[in-house]
Amino acid sequence: MAPSRVDRPAINRARKLRRAMTGGEKKLWSKLKEFRTAYGIHVRKQVPIGPYVADFAIHASRLIIEVDGERHEDVEQKAHDLKRDAWFAEAGYRTLRFSTGTLAEHFDGCIETIIKELGAIQ
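^ DUF559 domain-containing protein, sequence as received from the core. Prediction below:
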């Protein structure tokens, strides 16, 4: 469940992550920030939500978009991702995950998936 107070450590992590975005995150952000003018959808990057920091969030649609690099193949990291996704779901968010490989090879398809998901929500 979403906390009623601000999680200061998550805010500090988000600030650091905004300055150190990965190549995949930067590429996706370059497109997602256009959603505001193209569709009237406000996307935020490296967003503190409760104790976690989502790569991207669209609060109005309760959608989180995560970019998973190679470290997300690790068993412990996968377990952590499942825990995060469950927490986000309990807080009312849906999570879309894209690997950096999928973003690199099928970028337009990833954008289409996001747009379809937004259409299904709204």
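The beta strands are 44-49, 52-58, 63-68, 94-99.
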